[in-house]
Amino acid sequence: MGRTVAVILAAGQGKRMRSALAKVLHPVAGRPMIRYVLDAALEAGVDAVVVVVGRDAERVQEACVQAAAERRPPLAFALQEEQLGTGHAVLQARPHVGEADRLLVLYGDTPLIEAAQIRALLDAHAAAGAAATLLTAVVADPTGYGRVVRGGDGAVLRIVEEKDATEEERRIQEINTGIGCFTPGPLWEALQRVEPRNAQGEYYLTDVVALLRGMGHRTAAVPAADAEAVLGVNDRAALAEAGAVLRRRRLLRLMREGVTVVDPATTFVDADVEVGEDTVILPFTILEGRTRVGRGCRLGPGSHLIDSELADGVTVMQSVVEESRIAEGVRIGPFAHVRPGCEIGPGAEIGNYAEVKKSRLGAGVKAHHHSYIGDAVIGDNVNVGAGLVTVNYDGRRKHVTVVEAGAFLGCNVNLVAPVTVGRDAYVAAGSTVTEPVPPGALAIARERQVNKEGWVERARSRPAGDGSA
Fold first, then answer.
1. Could you tell me the pTM of the whole model?
2. Do the beta carbons of residue 181 and residue 103 sit within 8 Å?
3. Catalytic residue among 96, 217, 337, 369
4. Which residues have C-beta within 8 Å of that of residue 44, sequence separation ≥ 6?
5. pLDDT per residue over 287-325, tens digit each?
6. Which domains does the chain possess?
7. Which tens digit of pLDDT belongs to each residue from 212-227?
8. In angstroms, rounded to a whole number, what is the distance separating the alpha carbons of residues 362 and 365?
9. Less CB within 10 Å around the terminal CB: N or C of the chain?
């Protein structure tokens, strides 16, 4: 088929998004939407990619470079300093295209496009021998899209934008998706002839259809097999709809790979998440970013995992885990919070209302309820009593607490960092520990109990307002 270059148009303002962020950078199922377009083009086998950037150009370039990092295709960027329409945008790419047999034009705001649809378009273009082959879609509500005007023989005569369409043309349900495949020579010649004779005063790429026909070239159009997959995102409502489609695709793929998703309608999994066989995902669970989940895990209900790694056999019930590594057989929750920077060892248990932050917990650690462990290193098989707090912050700096293997920490203990509790040591309930505890020792750091016999009776007999003890 020769050399195919993809040109991705990503310079638009995206005014209908009403956002400080460029439209193509808005995340959909955990990725900037332009990444889906770039991935689809590369998977379809294009030889090089040129991205036309405008608004937030540097950030858009950075997102594309990151997305293409694994495949490392020839990737170039063309700056459209003034947004004068899609035809003008494609012309900005011309110096970066080089020698090409086909030019594939894609849009950065169509995150639902898939490689199979792109390959079908390329095949149709080759079979038609056309100078331009457009990808169209037949939709129930064509509002907002350019209409495909065909002749009596079915040939594409022109594309008319909605603002420029007549009432009769607006009733046409076949729309232009903007995606198309072009033969470069005729395309460049036609683009030079495009004039901004429209309500927007812009140079439309779609105008080349009529121009190419007038120059004696053949033009063709291929309706998409899945209209949903080729529609663009123009506002926040469409963004949400695209996200729902992408998450549904991801869940279907996971279920085919051996993952149980109890209720797909209430389960949210980002595109880059990986989940092992025989894992069960219960309702109202969210897996975000580059989360990796092993085999035989049980997640939810109501759990939220962000950029974390879970080994096999982990349970996370109604809890949050962020940017942490969880070893095999760990049980977390309900209502626990593992904050960024944690490593939880095999078989550890983190229970009700326990919070762990930037800490390393060894194998078999039990922190079942109402505790805070921050900036700490906890050895194997340590018991963490209810209400334990590592007092890690002095108002200016964070300090480290070390608890060695086998230690027993009683209820309502405060460990004022920096401090170390030695191997197999005990800390009595209610203690505030400020000095190191030697291995095997019992630390008691609390006021001695004083009982005042008869105090209640005397207090009741005193006149009101007498505060003496």
1. 0.88
2. yes
3. 369
4. 115, 116, 118, 119, 122
5. 999 999 999 999 999 999 999 999 999 999 999 999 999
6. 4-230 (3.90.550.10), 236-443 (2.160.10.10)
7. 999 999 998 888 988 8
8. 6
9. C
